[in-house]
Amino acid sequence: MWRGIVFGLLAGAFWGAVFIVPVLLPDFSPVELMVGRYACYGALAAGLMLPRLVPLLRRLRRADWLAMLRQALAGNVVYYLLLAYGVKLAGVAPTSLIIGLLPLSVTIVGHKDHGALPLRRLAPPLLVVALGIACINIDIFSHAGADGTSLAHKLLGVLCAACALACWTWYALDNDRFLKRHAHVSAVEWSMLYGLASGVIALAVGAVALALHHAGPAAGAPARDWPRFWLVCLLLALGASVIGNYLWNLASRLVPVTLSGQLILSETLFALLYGYLYAQRMPRPLEWAAMLLLAAGVLWSVHAHAREEGCRQSAGAG
Fold this sequence. Notes:
The protein contains 15 helices and no strands. By secondary structure, it is mainly α.
């Protein structure tokens, strides 16, 4: 189990890097960041699957293609586009804290799939989470304008982060249901397939964006660092999408499902760590409060489900 915990923490360290990339590449738009990341991921997935790609594609059915396209859109392309806009407009801390509610949102939305507790039993941890969200929003809007970002932009950034949370929640449940009902494709094969699909969709979106915005750089505008852009996108695709997902798969096999829900919080914690290190500052009091309350609420929910599952197993054994 300790090996599984280490693998899960390392996966979180890789995943947390996705939140800092929009800050590292401020001259590039969220659309460009999304296209760069998933074009690289698609190329890596195609290379890794090349020896068995054609036989694998022949095994796919019409339902598989539809699932692959919708999951690539929701779980990768649209999700990261919204995440990048959230970071650009609201900052790393608010975006990562809102998306850090994933363990709780997946549990609530998918309670019929996973036998979750009734919502009335989740009222106390949900209240704690609501207080955490209130803290981070108060902090955001009380410091609006301090970094040159307007209140409207901050609000739009929070909305983008919430929509990104909704996208990945839906994707997680759809992906879980698909893999349970379609055993002819393994989890690793499916991960590579929707990575490849994400690359194709990202390139299509990039072509449309280029066609709509075909004007060249403004006169006197500084040249952008494209070599750095592609290097960061390649490292992000390799680290977060390939290595991070592989480490998470290893962790999932070695730790109980209730513990894996807690390990997902490591992504949020590493994202916050990277953000504060880059900004060279400590969290403000309300940011500390938000981090503690959100972590407490999610962990409380996970433990409540762990106790319920233990009771069910004991009753079944008896």
